[in-house]
Specification:
By secondary structure, the protein is mainly beta. It is built from one helix and ten strands. A four-stranded antiparallel sheet has the order 3-10-8-5, with no helix packed on it. Strands 7-6-4-9 form a four-stranded antiparallel sheet, with no helix packed on it. A two-stranded antiparallel ribbon has the order 1-2.
């Protein structure tokens, strides 16, 4: 075992490190997660091709949909919240870029999205 004294932001910590194999520490195995691409495709396919609007509201970052604040056919004003997206443990309000009518809602609560995915379309 080796003892180290580490100072972080003015705080002093005594750390004991246990020596392992001579080849160094073994790399941690990569966490196994299910691919998220397959579930994400289902909400997009649910919207008929004719229901897409001219103005697309895209996801600015990957995350999870916490709430959908509008429904198809609803009138929205510029700056009105249409979707709440959780990313990096923060709730982000996604707003309408202009006045219009919601042509399609392409996501559901709980679905995962990637950056650039179309969340809502407006006419």
């Amino acid at each position: 075992m080796k003892n180290y004294t580490i100072t972080v932001n003015g705080n002093v910590y005594e750390v004991t490190v246990e020596e392992g194999l001579t080849g160094g520490a073994a790399p941690a195995p990569a966490p196994k997660t299910a691919p998220k691409a397959a579930p994400k495709a289902a909400p997009k396919a649910a919207a008929p091709a004719g229901a897409q609007g001219a103005v697309k509201v895209n996801s600015p970052m990957p995350g999870k949909i916490l709430a959908v604040k509008v429904a198809e056919g609803a009138a929205v004003k510029r700056g009105e919240v249409v979707v709440i997206l959780e990313a990096m443990k923060m709730e982000n309000e996604i707003v309408a870029p202009q006045d219009g009518t919601v042509a399609s809602v392409n996501v559901t609560v709980g679905s995962s999205v990637e950056a650039g995915d179309v969340l809502v379309t407006l006419n």
